TrEMBL record:
PANTHER family per the UniProt record, alphabetical: QUEUOSINE 5'-PHOSPHATE N-GLYCOSYLASE_HYDROLASE, QUEUOSINE 5'-PHOSPHATE N-GLYCOSYLASE_HYDROLASE-RELATED
Biological function: Catalyzes the hydrolysis of queuosine 5'-phosphate, releasing the nucleobase queuine (q). Is required for salvage of queuine from exogenous queuosine (Q) that is imported and then converted to queuosine 5'-phosphate intracellularly.
Family: Belongs to the QNG1 protein family.
Pfam families tied to this protein: Q_salvage
Name assigned to this protein: Queuosine 5'-phosphate N-glycosylase/hydrolase
Molecular function terms, GO-annotated: hydrolase activity
Lineage, broadest ranks: Eukaryota, Metazoa, Ecdysozoa, Arthropoda, Hexapoda
Length: 338
């Protein structure tokens, strides 16, 4: 049986030989997060303030999130390509995750029933090429893998959950961990696990972000009310490590840094890739503890922090200061997990 993501992070960090956590850097990030928290810039409402995201009143909000997080992986451009995959929508150009959101919204506006598993459980590659058409010569990465994911999850929703992710949420009875288990048990493409030092570890990036997005979209109420939401850890992807390295909270061995600088692909499940992701989980847990200490020391009982909000802060920071962070290489792993 796999360790939980939280246990996995601690286990991986303890045995890591290529990636290291620096407590001074942890403190630096914690200070930034605490300042953002005090200013009111970091809260559960942030999700719905993104114009591409659904509002909690949208009838298909949960199923929109399910489709998007089924496809929420691997947006980086291939090392030999000069262009990124882009989506043009309503006069704006989007890249990365937001290009996915924009393409989904564009398709829905064009009459494609993209939140209906009856449609996407049988969607053709030709349809997907049209739905995710690029504004550049660079097509959407891993399109055939995305088709497989949609077919897989769509069939399960139709067979077990009456065609809606809402029924998965209801089955969880307000427990984030139960919903996480429902997702990873029933939908194999969300089962983001690896072997590390003879131990099965779980990273569960997309499964956790799916639960976290439901929580954030519904502002922790109604479908998004989870009594144990704080038990989720950060979403171990390829962008957040960039920010943690920038702040000095994560450090890489010279050997690993050389690989990243030369754009060498790290296979999914390889030791170095697992160490980067596991140490990210552990470092965010340490950041959270530091922020909680600051909240307690200042008696700011109205402030609340969890690892999801810290992840939001780090991901947004990377977006906001993309040019500054461009000099820090990120690991590239072609896979459906992140």
């Amino acid at each position: 049986m796999a360790l939980s993501p939280k246990e996995s992070g601690a286990f991986i960090a303890k045995h890591a030989t290529h990636v290291f956590i620096d407590r001074e850097g942890v403190q630096k990030v914690a200070s930034e997060v605490y300042e953002a928290l005090k200013k009111g810039a970091l809260n559960v409402q942030g999700f719905s303030q993104v114009e591409l995201h659904p509002k909690k009143t949208d009838k298909d909000a949960a199923d929109w999130i399910f489709v998007v997080d089924t496809l929420n992986f691997c947006f980086w451009k291939p090392p030999n390509s000069k262009e990124k995959w882009e989506t043009h929508f309503r006069g704006k150009t989007y890249t990365g995750y937001f290009a996915l959101c924009a393409a989904v919204n564009r398709a829905i506006e064009e009459g494609v029933p993209l939140t209906d598993p009856k449609f996407y459980s049988e969607v053709t590659l030709n349809d997907l090429q049209k739905i995710f058409r690029s504004g550049t010569a660079q097509p959407m990465p891993l399109l055939e893998e995305r088709q497989k994911c949609l077919h897989e999850v769509g069939k399960v929703l139709l067979e077990k959950y009456n065609g809606s992710f809402v029924n998965c949420i209801r089955e969880s009875e307000g427990s984030a961990q139960t919903l996480l288990n429902i997702i990873t048990t029933n939908f194999p493409c969300f089962r983001d696990e690896a072997e590390f030092h003879n131990q099965k570890v779980a990273l569960y990036k997309r499964a956790q972000i799916l639960v976290g997005d439901i929580w954030a979209c519904f502002h922790g109420e109604d479908l998004g009310k989870f009594k144990d939401i704080d038990s989720l850890v950060m979403f171990a992807d390829y962008r957040v490590p960039q920010v943690l390295v920038y702040f000095g909270a994560l450090k890489y061995s010279n050997e690993l840094m050389k690989k990243l600088e030369s754009d060498e692909l790290l296979p999914n499940g390889s030791t170095e890739e697992v160490e980067i992701r596991g140490c990210c989980i552990e470092v965010v847990e340490l950041i959270r503890e530091e922020v909680k200490k600051s909240i307690a020391a200042d008696n700011k009982t109205d402030l609340h922090i969890n690892s999801i909000l810290i992840d939001h802060f780090l991901w947004d920071y990377r977006r906001k200061y993309a040019d500054t962070l461009e000099s820090i290489p990120f690991h590239k792993t072609p896979c459906v997990y992140y």
